[in-house]
UniProtKB/TrEMBL annotation:
GO terms for molecular function: acetate-CoA ligase (ADP-forming) activity; ATP binding; metal ion binding. Keywords: ATP-binding, Nucleotide-binding. Residues 22-43 are annotated as: Disordered. This is Pimeloyl-CoA synthetase. Transmembrane segments: none annotated. It comes from the Bacteria. Residues 541-579 form the ATP-grasp domain. Pfam families: ATP-grasp_5, CoA_binding_2, Ligase_CoA_2, Succ_CoA_lig.
Amino acid sequence: MLGSTHGTLTTDSRRARIIACGEQRPGPAVHGRADPLDGGDDGAGLDVSGRPLYADVPDLARFFRPQSVAVIGASDAEGRPNTGITRQLLTWAERVGARVHPVHPARPSVFGVACCASVADLPEQVDLAVLLVADPLPVIEELAETKVKFAVAFASGFAETGAQGAEAQERLAEAVRRSGLRLLGPNTNLNAFERFRDDLEGPAIALITQSGHQGRPLFALQELGIRLSHWAPTGNEADLETSDFISYFAEQPEVGAIAAYVEGLKDGRAFLLAADRAARRKVPVVAVKVGRTEAGARTAATHTGKLTGADDVVDAAMRQYGVVRVDGLDELQDTAALLARARAPRAEGVVVYSISGGTGAHVADLAAGLGLRLPTLSPDRQAELHQWIPEYLSAANPVDNGGHPVGDERGRKIIDAILADPEVGVLICPVTGPFPPLSDKLVRDLVEAAEATGKLVCVVWGSPVGTEPAYREVLLGSSRVATFRTVGNCLRAVGAWLDHHRFVSDYRSPFDEAPRTPSPSFRKAEALMRPGQQLSEHAAKQLLRAYGIRVPREQLVTSAAAAVRAAGQVGYPVVMKASGAQIAHKTELGLVKIGLTSASQVRDAYRELTDIARYEGVCLDGVLVCQMVEQGVEMVVGMTHDDLFGPTVTVGLGGVLVEVLHDAAVRVPPFGEEQARDMLAELRGRALLDGVRGRPPADLDALVEVVLRVQRIALELGGHLAELDINPLMVLPRGQGAVALDALVVCR
């Protein structure tokens, strides 16, 4: 039995325990004072490690709608690449009402517009400078004197080419920092200056791409009646990056969703802050992030020169802040379009309605497999539907009308009856192919019903042709029906839409409650740090104790006689382990003895452990005599550094299972108790914690508490620690707590 008990903790009592061990109580949510996102953070804008808590949003209005533009390196000579770019910029500037000042030392005019010989000769302070030069660095230095707000560099040959190019890009970035202007690029393109349709209404999609070609399918959505408002082709991101544009777009009232194609993130923390801003504003962010595989990550790095972080960390970070991650451009456009235009759901139930039982069953299976809820319609609702649907057909969900009712007044009545059900928030109708005139009337009924209800109506138009009037004119002509070409994209988009609204409805930013000042625990733990070294198990457990993480009763001894005395005080049976700063795998070296029940066994174990250590050349600070803890579920909780996001916290099945199954979940601090519990829900071995084969349920509250305490260590000591690994953490039966049986700590 353990020497102390650990009762089940409520949220309040858990926080009280954390505060008692030296933590600070999270600050209150922002109520009754200025929103920190609008500059009212009262000076508390840094966390305990000195990192910002809120995104710095650049004012990009004058970038996208400048009043004056300088085109440096402008040309009208036929056959020159700069000529086509200059022509497009002149057309774009006329459309947005901007004055253009071509700059060229050897040309009096370009396309009839008078040229300036140099940047110094510009007749006014310009909002935007477009650099059509091979080496933008000297021009950036010249522009610093003119107080220009923004610049765009198209030139390539920077970080995407390797180490030498990366050095050139860093010199460019440093010049930009000194100049005070903001730079888009290098290695970018003209996508920001495309012609956007101004005859479309409704919420718009704002687009961010690092590779301009990948944005073409989304830009073409305008031809389907879906509005786009901005396109930011970020290129190599020497200065302005994806995160800047997410933060800016989240503030624009016309933006209904942000769609991003991301090859690599420049700054993981900046991305989290930007995603947090979008979540606060309830603006959905949908992203393709390449690099799921080693090959994808390698290709992305060569294309943009970015450091691609471990993909499981990227995935977790996106989920933490509600970013919808999709795999393909077709899914990106369908999901972004739905999230931008669809209203908040009135209910989460999904009904599949079709003219074919086989089609309905297939779509329903796919929907259920993706986690969508398909409620069985009530007996009364089914009886109502069977007024118009033959009795032998299903009206439960999926609903099969048999085909003929769509050709007369019954079709609209069926749709209205389904949408009237209070459990139904979404109606999905797959049309596998056109069958006029019935299909024409079906889609008209769906459009009219969608206009009359606040619920989501989705149609999957399965025809590979796509020129049918029912599709081109009726479905695409409706702003209320969401039209898809594939069932998979439809179902995933609907799932993302439901998830987004569920997420933002109760979103509370973890940055609002992130600690601002170090706890008393920090000072105790800081004294244990040994830069560049690994701590002994004894020192590592002292660090855990400082943060209130429970460890077994144990004593560090340096003689066999002391070991026997310690065993009597700890209580038999005991475990004995060699303790030294450079011992990473004690079991493999035979430096662990378990289940010792007598003084003679303890003496023999001490001599054997010290003999092995001498033979292996391992320096010891002593031998640990530890309480033996057996009844529980072995877990691992740890902290490590991700190249992009910094300290990350991981929880998973412990012992040897962590190496065999790799069953773990990760989060990026800061995060709250709900996210910690979500981590446990993600584990494939989660059932072990609930109790299997007659074993009692484990103390989940205690496990969550350890995860949160390790997070506090990560927040306060992240700059000192390269790695922290509690393995195994023995999670005892409910109400009895969790005990860190072993710990590895490596200092930076």
